[in-house]
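note to self: dont lose this again. the chain is below, predicted strucutre after it. 71 aa total, dont forget to put it in the shared folder this time
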Amino acid sequence: IEKRGEKMSKENKSKGNKRFEVIENQGFEPTYEVIRDNKTGVLYMSLSSGFGSAMTLLVDRDGKPLVDNEF
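---
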């Protein structure tokens, strides 16, 4: 995923440095994915079903963003 107007450098592409990475995938239809922001460690959940999709920030019980413990 690239920011609008920005291109990922050839060096980053060749090293596989991706800003976002799917770290867990469950289901077939619908499909749930947990996505990690590799810059911040923040976790998001994506749901895809048919022609629709949604993405949301994962939060703890206090409403703070969940961060990957292994990040």
